[in-house]
Structure formats: C-alpha cells, structure tokens
Amino acid sequence: MSNVRYLIGNILPPTGYPRILIHSCNCGGSWGGGIAYQLAARYPKAEEVYVDACNKYGNQLLGKCLFIPSYKNDDLIICCLFTSAFGGASHDYKKSILNYTKQGLQAVRAWLYGGRDAIHDEIQKDINSVINKLGKPLKDHKLEMPKINSGIFGVPWEETESVLEEFGAGTQTLNFTVYSL
C-alpha cells in the first residue's frame, strides 16, 4: 500500500480536521507564485512569519521545514519546505531541490514523531518555536500538499513522488494526500 494518496480538488478550503499543508518554497522571502501566492493572499500573518525566517536565516534554511499556524483556522498548519534558494527562473537545479525536499521531509518526520527533543538543529528549533503553542500534537494532523516542486521549480512530479515514497516504510511513516485540480 502506497503512502501517497491522490485527490482531485482544491486544497485551500477549510476541512474540519487537523492538517498540515506542505508546500515547497524558496529562502528569498517571496510567496509570489503558485500555491504560495494563494497562501499569502489567504494567510498574510503566516506569510509574515515565513518572511521573517527568510530575513533572519536566508539560505541556511535549505533542507529545513517551517511550521506556521494559519492564524485563521485552528485546524490548519502551513509547512514550508525550503527546497530552493531562489524562486522564479532563478530556482536551483532539480537534483538539489530533490535533495533539500528529502532533508525537509526528514525534519517533518522528526518533528511529528520526536518533537523538539528529536531536533538537533538550532535554526530548526528557533524557526519552529511556535509549535509548543499549537494545541494539538503535530502527529495528529494529516499531511496534505499540492504536487510540490513541479510548478515554478520545474521538477517532474514523478521524481518528487519517489522522494515521498521513501517515507512510506519503517515505524515512522509519513502518509501524504496530494491534491491536483
């Protein structure tokens, strides 16, 4: 059984259950296109948190994840996977993006299964200091995403899908619901 499930529909409306909406993003502080643009329009306070992290750490964020409450919907946490230093036409190479995607998902898994005590990276701890205030444990949230990396970053979806499937074995599996329109 695969750890990647597909749904056709809009990922953005509220769902009524706790979820983490994962998207890939750059370290430049711009939610200017794709799903990030839609998130910025709906959740401007969340975008401010992302921009602050980028301003503070820049490219040191590559391969990390940032959990941000939506500040509008108690059941939604936005998770930024920092997979490219820059966005737009200046994005990183495919191999690098896939490597940073894997690292970011390893961090997601560590947060879900081990919490703060499982994190040894000080930047990770700093940017995710809000996690303790979220109310529900992260592991109680469903992991949902669009076809990350395949839009602006131009990575063929099948290659990102292969990275996701690596998290489907063992005792600390990650199950993803992937949305497409």
UniProtKB/TrEMBL annotation:
Superkingdom field: Eukaryota
Record-listed E.C. numbers: 3.1.3.84
One BP term from GO: peptidyl-glutamate ADP-deribosylation
SUPFAM superfamilies in the cross-refs: Macro domain-like (SSF52949)
Catalytic activity, reaction form: ADP-alpha-D-ribose 1''-phosphate + H2O = ADP-D-ribose + phosphate
Residue ranges of domain Macro in the record: 1-181
One Pfam family, short name: Macro
Family note: Belongs to the POA1 family.
Stated name of the protein: ADP-ribose 1''-phosphate phosphatase
Source species: Zygosaccharomyces mellis
